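Before going further, it is useful to explain how the protein records used in this thesis are read. An example of such a record is reproduced below.

***
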Amino acid sequence: MLSYADNHVWWFDLKRMLIIFFLLTSALVCAAAAPHTQPVRPRGHRDGDYSLTVAGQFSGKGSASVTPGTLSLNSNIIFKGAATGTLTATNLTIDKCYFTGAGTIAGVACTIEGRIDLPAATDADQTDKQSCTGRISGTFKDAKGNIGKFMAVQSNPSPVPGYGNGHGGGGGNGNGNNN
């Protein structure tokens, strides 16, 4: 038969184990509910010069330039491996991240459309340069029905001024107002 002292110790141990269990469970629930944040890195800005590559029925290399609200393209091209010419478009209209407009490919009128993308700058596997490098992708179709695609990568990416964290990696002072 258990004495009062033995019974009391057993009950005390059970209460202690239950308290520890509930504390650990609470800690796990709180840890799971806490927001998991990535380090804040400055995003790039889309304005600037890009290295352009053309593929499809047309191939070639050239350049692209983005200014506030417009995109311009210029590339030497080879059509189906034989004929040469240029892809030229100036002042394509940018609306949010999409662009449309007209240009010429080897002297033939063409329509152009596509988008400009900036990384979210939250991927921990990206380098700082990758996190602010803009990319352009698009297609063009000439009046004869020939289609081509192009990709462009920003030549000298840089973070948006004033979007830094105040620790030397960006252009801001950390208070959000660039002062």
User: Anything to note?
Assistant: The chain has two domains: 1-33, 48-154. The longest helix spans residues 4-33. The beta strands are 48-56, 58-67, 70-79, 83-95, 98-105, 108-117, 135-142, 147-154.
